[in-house]
Amino acid sequence: MPDTTRPATLWEPLDGGAVRCLLCGHRCRITQGSTGLCGVRENREGALVTLVYGRLVAENVDPIEKKPLYHLAPGSLSYSVATAGCNFRCKHCQNHTISQITGQAPLPGRAVTPEQVVKAAVTAGCRSIAYTYTEPTVFFEFALACMKMARQAGLLNVFVTNGYLSPQAMDAAAPYLDAANVDLKAYTEGFYRDLCGARLQPVLECIRSLWQRGVWLEATTLVIPHHNDDPAELREIARFLVSVSPNLPWHVSGFYPTYQLTGEPPTPVATLAGARRIGLEEGLRYVYMGNRSGAGGEDTACPHCGRAVIRRRGFAVIANELTAAGACRGCGDNIAGRALGGEP
Question: Considering the entire predicted model, what is its pTM?
Answer without folding.
Answer: 0.96
